[in-house]
Amino acid sequence: MFREERGLLLASLVRRFGDLDLAEEVTSEAIEAALRHWPAEGIPARPGAWLLTTARRKAVDRLRRDQAYAARLAVLRADAERAETVAPAPDAARVAELPDDRLQLFFTCTHPALAAEDRTALTLRCLAGLTTPEVARAFLVPTATMAQRIVRAKRKIREARIPFRVPGPDELPERLPGVLQVVYSVFTEGYAASSGPRLQRLDLAEEAVRLARILRRLLPAERETAGLLALLLLVHARRDARTGPDGEPVLLEEQDRERWDRAMIEEGRDLVVQALTGGPAGPYGVQAAIAALHDEAADVESTDWAQIVALYDVLLTLTPSPVVAVNRAVAVAMRDGPGAGLALLDALAEEPRLRAYPPYAVARGDLLTRLGRAGEAAVAYREALELAGTEPERAALRRKLGE
Fold this sequence. Notes:
Elements: H1 2-17, H2 20-41, H3 47-65, H4 67-86, H5 92-96, H6 102-109, H7 116-126, H8 132-138, H9 143-159, H10 172-191, H11 202-218, H12 223-236, H13 262-276, H14 283-296, H15 305-318, H16 322-336, H17 338-346, H18 358-370, H19 374-387, H20 391-402
Helix pairs in contact: 1-2, 1-3, 1-6, 2-3, 7-9, 7-10, 8-9, 10-11, 10-12, 11-12, 12-13, 12-14, 13-14, 14-15, 15-16, 16-17, 16-18, 17-18, 18-19, 19-20
């Protein structure tokens, strides 16, 4: 319950007092108070309201004791009130789409004035409720380093007077992709860890799904929130089949599809329809459609590779990138044969971003193996082995080399 309530509680306090540090401190103090009182007195009928009332009282007590702090917050509050006066009033439909204050915190934590790594760290700390050591472990940096990032981000918000507010209708199209990108980045690290002893960080992946659900509830009219949640669900549905008993990765064509989460797939498919209905598709909606085609197929052979290639063509127009081009090349190889796919991969050989991207070398190794060019495949697998971040990936590549 604390994990679910914390983000809402923190957002409400930030809106009331305009200071993230104060909100975090009194949120923690309120939860501590609950842990002391509830075992003896029982859980209140409205635990969230109890926590909010307790936290507000503690914040007021803090401000009474520290007049200088209170004066600084008064200035911030005055700025916020002026901004609200200048900003156009939201219409009734828009207000109905914003059932709580978390959306403001989403946009504050992912403000473009913050460094990219700071945005992700702050989102995990404030909205996912991870502790600073947990965020540090997620990105494999010392706790002190992560603490500095979070402090730096909060200082930037305070000094630049970044407003705690939802962007207006004219700003939302520009700002929303940044919010979605942060949640997607969290999921990506959970889906395929950049380093460490495990291929997947299921805790991070599940936090990203939870954040995507919140965004979907807060912005139901934005189709790309449906697209992002659909994509995460359709990919996360395969989590139990993606690793073997020893933790090594299991390729898509070798996975036991009976272990895929069918309820999650059905939910994701419904969201894909919403993401692709009512206008031009966005990049998350297109990626979700690709994932749905994989999840609907009984096996690799019956997968609609022609449709997947066509969707990758669309995705390349929306978000041109060498990584998307690699994925498209693999799909072409499944549709037209390994030679056609390898030609596309070789055409990308000079792309700087792919030199440190293990899946590119793995894809070349796999296609070269299918073409019977074992010596060249071994070279590609050795390149991938040098780049691989997790021990399960390295073990799988050593096995491929042995074969």
